[in-house]
Amino acid sequence: MTVSKDTIKRYSIRLGDDAVVLGHRLSEWCSSGPFLEEDLALTNVALDFIGRARMFYGYAAELADDGSTEDTYAYTRDNREFTNLLIHELKNGDFAFTMARQYFIDVYSLAYMEALQNSSDETLAAVADKAVKESRYHLRRSHDWMLRLGDGTEESRSRMQRAVDDLWGYTPEMFEMDALEQELADAGIGVDAAALRDDWEQTVHATLVEATLEVPEGDWAVNGGRQGMHTEALGHMLSDMQFVQRAYPGLQW
Amino acid sequence: MADPAIIPALPAEEYERRERRVNSSLQSLWDLLDAVKDPEIPAVSLWEMGILQDIAMQGDRVIVTITPTYSGCPAMTVMAEDVLQALADAGYADSEVVTRLSPAWSTSWMSEEAQDKLREYGIAPPGQGGGNEPVEVLCPRCHSDEVRRLSEFGSTACKALYQCSACGEPFDHFKPI
Question: Rounded to whole angstroms, what are the CA distances from B44 to B15, B38, B118, B124, B125?
Fold first, then answer.
């Protein structure tokens, strides 16, 4: 059974959406970081994710072969056409929230990209090769911040605990598979995200314990991102991110 | 010819890259592009960085293949423009820069000479391990090993910010990947 180009294109757009949305969120920290080095770190990580988005979108555009470019996907699609996992689009909150989200995503992203390195699709595997190297650095930093804030002052610990609690219900969606992703996983092209869940939970639990944080007990879970059903936050973010291309279509500088 | 499988000092991809240059019939173009430096680190050329991968001719058209260092490195666009400009200045008006992702760029492709140039420029080099092993970071000014990392990210994505405890110098360390 061969997988259609359109299916691979849609998959590549999903991964591009995850990356561009998180990249934009991180870029919102520019000049608002807690101190200069962190300001640089946040925006450097943002650049890595925007670069990742460009590679996935660029590949999707190549597969589409209909005149679309990476900019078409980033700047001219509406809220409901974005298929990122919800955790990427949440508002930055305080620094603890941004770092807890980053840590949850980094653990996931590293495992996901390591699996995607084995894709039978050469381009997806090549993008994953680059992403893995970067995710290792991202994870090292976000892991350090989990420990530093969790096992820090009373104030930092309570903020980090609140961040972990508020994010918890957005993590199960990362391991959900729908028909499209299942077809690609079966064909050796896409990643079986469900298979990454146990390792993710083990790693994250161990870090939370080390950071003297409590593992949330609630079993609430939100999903819908892959189907274009988003939180209120995404539309506001896109209105900012897409404004220039919406107001002046095709503008270049 | 040395077999890269027997002499592990040089990564296979880097061995092949050097062979491509040595065996190329376009020596003058390779030499020409030695003048194109990394816009963020003008001490080293794109060739020395391991970014310049191949040069080919299609009729009158020069096709230059480069590989990105980091996914989001904003210098990549400038590098491509600089390559096209250098070729245009030499009379090759019709040329193209192609980006190739695989094999993924590694700091282990940088020669020892390139690493020395980084050090002279004030940047602690990545070493030749390519990110699998921790490297000893030495202060590029006083060579002390009493250094501490201030931040995982420095002035660009490819560098981390360090400070020397011996001489007080803050410096960038080119991260091994």
Answer: 19, 6, 7, 14, 12
Does residue B68 sit in the same domain as residue B151?
Answer: no
Integer Cα distance of B116 and A7 in angstroms: 48
B40 within some domain: yes
Binary contact (A54, B71; C-beta < 8 A):
yes
Query: Is residue B55 one of the residues assigned to a domain?
Result: yes
Nearest to A52 among B71, B150, B153 (CB): B71
Domains and CATH numbers, chain A: 5-247 (1.20.1260.10)
Tell me if A37 and B105 make a contact (CB, 8 A cut-off).
no
Classify the complex by whether its ipTM is higher than 0.90, answering yes or no.
no
Tens digit of pLDDT for each residue in B124-159?
999 877 766 677 899 999 999 999 998 888 888 889
> Which residue's entry shows tokens 């450097």?
A44
Cross-chain residue pair A47–B104, CB shorter than 8 Å: no
pLDDT of residue B131: 66
- Whether omega for the bond prior to residue B4 falls within 30 degrees of 0, making it cis, is no
* Closest A-chain CA to B103: A126
Write down the pLDDT at residue B168: 95
Calculate how close chain B gets to A48, using CA atoms only, in Å: 5
A50, B103: Cβ pair inside 8 Å? no
Q: Average pLDDT per run of 10 along chain A, which is 253 residues long?
A: 92 98 98 92 95 96 96 96 98 98 98 98 95 94 97 98 98 98 98 98 98 93 97 97 94 83
Distance between CA atoms of B20 and A162, rounded to whole angstroms?
A: 56
Are the beta carbons of A102 and A45 closer than 8 angstroms?
Answer: yes
- Which residues span the domain enclosing B72? 12-105
Task: State pTM to two decimals.
Answer: 0.91
Query: Domain ends where: B87, B105, B123?
Result: B105
Strand arrangement of the beta sheet that strand B52-58 belongs to:
B52-58, B61-66, B95-99
Closest alpha carbon within chain A to B71: A51
pLDDT tens by residue, B90-101? 999 999 999 998
Look at residue B2 and tell me if it is in a domain.
Answer: no
